[in-house]
Amino acid sequence: MLFTVRDNVICATVSAHSGNGAATSFEEALVTDTLGQPETDYERVQNSAEFQALKRRFRRFVFPMTAFFLSWYFLYVLLADYAHDFMSTKVWGNITVGLLLGLGQFVSTFAITMIYARWANNRQDPVAEQLRLHIENGDPLDGGRA
After folding, report:
1. Are 45 and 93 within one domain?
2. b vs e for 64-87, b when ≥16 Cβ sit within 10 Å of the residue's Cβ?
3. Who's near 29: CB < 8 A, 6+ residues apart?
4. Do 72 and 131 share a structural domain?
5. pLDDT tens string 27-76
6. Residue 88 lies in domain
7. Lesser CB count within 10 Å: N end or C end of the chain?
8. HSE-CB of 99 using CA atoms within 13 angstroms
9. Would the CA dihedral through 34, 36, 39, 42 be positive or negative?
């Protein structure tokens, strides 16, 4: 069985052998991913190149930023648990390294939030807005049918 995509519909081509050994091909049926139902608007948008690019751009920003923050957070927790002498080192008066690193957790949280908001406003939101208008106007996505 061979599957091909024609006009955003998956087609299955089946080869059959007759008794004399000759192979004949015929198109079995049109198959969709919604059990015979035509593609919905949501599926059409989700499968579009524009939406996939939007998701990729989002993931390329969010996953590394999340990995950075979790690493920084777990470093703080591990230092607090296993490096008591280091964390209790006084920096100035009663201010310790642990206190500064703990405050750094709050500062980094706000910094990451501001960085994300700026990035989303400048890079993600304009593309999402353009895609939304494209969809609401019924314009075709990926140059295909609406």
Report:
1. yes
2. eeeeeeeeeeeebeeeeeeeeeeb
3. 12
4. yes
5. 444 445 545 677 777 888 888 888 898 999 999 999 999 999 999 999 99
6. 41-136
7. N
8. 9
9. negative
